[in-house]
Design goal:
Blueprint lengths: L1 E8 L2 H7 L6 E8 L17 E13 L4 H17 L5 E3 L3 E4 L2 E13 L2 E11 L16 H5 L5 H12 L5 H5 L8 E5 L4 E9 L5 E5 L2 E5 L5 E3 L1
Parallel strand pairs: 1-2
Antiparallel strand pairs: 2-3, 3-7, 4-5, 5-6, 6-7, 8-9, 8-12, 9-10, 10-11
Helix pairs in contact: 2-4
Length: about 230
């Protein structure tokens, strides 16, 4: 996999799309001016964070197994944080939290053809030494804030690269979920419902108990609040 390091770019995901010649890429940027989050949200990228997109191409990857890409990304981030003494949890489907606050977000953009994934671009932003803006201070944190010290960003990058090239399972993912059996809030644009979280299926759907009825929830349909 080719590694590219940039000082500043609009979006590392967009850079991958614009420079796709069929080669797998890992693109780091010190800053993003047009970073993207899930559901069209913007992603603030101050100096000191780890901002990276990993682009991979596939020949025989069934679209039914798309959640495996999310699994690998989230577990790689969690294991990177653990290496530095931080204990993370995953908030389904793609947020990594520490002490109840978001420390990392993931945006995955897949390209499909004939029921298969032919390309995935995984954008990841980990708050390392970067400043957390006052607007999100109550819901976001950084490695520096958790450990009360600056980290060597190159060390974090090296650890992440080692982890992102491994293959993890749904069971690895679920080891970072500590809220099964608890009441959680699932939110759509129209409503919020409190349900009991039961499990996460192989396809990535959240299994919940709503008044004795078991439901499968898609992350594309709802967001989760713990």
């Amino acid at each position: 996999m080719k590694i590219i390091e940039l000082d500043e770019i609009g979006s590392t995901n967009e850079y991958c799309k614009a420079n796709d010649n069929g080669e797998d890429l890992c693109v780091f940027a010190k800053r993003q001016t047009m970073g993207k989050g899930t559901k069209g949200r913007s992603f603030i990228s101050f100096d000191g964070g780890l901002y990276v997109s990993v682009m991979k191409h596939y020949e025989n990857f069934s679209a039914e197994n798309a959640f495996r890409i999310m699994v690998n990304a989230c577990v790689a981030v969690c294991k990177t944080l653990e290496h530095f003494g931080i204990s993370p949890i995953i908030r389904w489907a793609n947020d990594v939290l520490v002490d109840g606050k978001k420390i990392c977000g993931t945006l995955i953009e897949n390209t499909f053809s004939n029921g298969k994934i032919v390309r995935s671009i995984v954008g990841i932003g980990i708050n390392v030494n970067n400043r957390i803006s006052s607007e999100i201070k109550q819901i976001a944190t950084s490695m520096k804030e958790v450990l009360d010290k600056n980290l060597n960003l190159q060390d974090v990058k090296k650890e992440f690269l080692e982890k992102i090239n491994r293959t993890f399972s749904i069971e690895d993912y679920k080891r970072y979920v500590n809220w099964f059996g608890q009441l959680v809030t699932i939110k759509t644009e129209e409503e919020e419902r409190v349900v009991k979280a039961v499990d996460i299926a192989e396809n990535g759907r959240l299994l919940v108990d709503l008044g004795g009825n078991m439901l499968e929830i898609s992350a594309a349909e709802v967001s989760l609040r713990l």
